[in-house]
């Protein structure tokens, strides 16, 4: 890692990191503030939810809404969170490598005394730092909203932390393969199309597997299947197994990206 390059890249991207993080935290705070209005009638709401198609309820993690964790999972972590962080992971991964190669900026970086390995490891750490910033702000927003807006006894902070931590691991994996794709292309648009297409395909396979139970098996080919915030909130999630697999996917993808970037011919 090169500290000077890391500081420069963080200065360039920090506003965007905080923009995504603050936006996510504000949405969690808003949803949390609505929870007391619904909590007193949660049983009736849960009964109403049962009239919805089973596939739809599974797709959005709405099988049961009997506590805060399941509520926030259904309202945010089961849909919007996945879309927002998916866009962030793909976009920043492409900006940190493929865009620099496409625009010739990578040539200036590699013409210095900083080695290729240090350059690509630094770019990787910038991307992971962005994910950490967003998840810390999101968790802090939810925890503070719970502290000041509702009775904290109603909230299981451990499960809420696990929902965010497993989510971070999921997008460590998503950003990992996006970063790998970014290292393979010289053209920013092509890299974005492939990384975005793969992520959309994985997301779609996960949703289709939930909606159509006959093809539930296709979910096992996508990392999104390892993130089930509703089950984590109810204490039924396989948190440790999911975390280990997602971290392995992320580390393997980032490691392969570093190796390939060191060896490939770049248009410098």
Automatic annotation (TrEMBL):
GO terms for molecular function: ABC-type transporter activity. GO terms for cellular component: plasma membrane. The chain crosses the membrane at residues 12-38, 76-98, 119-145, 165-185, 192-212, 239-261. The keyword Transmembrane helix applies. The keyword Membrane applies. Pfam families: ABC2_membrane_2. This is Permease.
